[in-house]
Amino acid sequence: MTSANPLLASWLYLAPNFILAALMYTLLGRVILGLFVAPDSPNYIWRFFCRVTDPVVTAVAVVTPKAAVPVVIWLMGVVWLFWLRVGLLYLFLLLSPAQTG
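Now predict its structure.
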């Protein structure tokens, strides 16, 4: 069963990939903004970046040494999210019914 729109056929890949990409780039934005803004700043943009990326930072902090500064944890979060996206693409390509060969 094929769909007329190829985007609808691959929504199982596109939706998680979009969410992971948004988190990755938001975390990268937090790293860059963290160079200019104090950690306890009341700036609403900084608070948004922190609120959105705190779950990722918490998960990465579990596997990162405690001696690491927050910026290193944030950058490691970007790296982990990137590799999650690569793994998702690989999994999607393995399970894709449209493979030729």
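The chain has one domain: 14-94.
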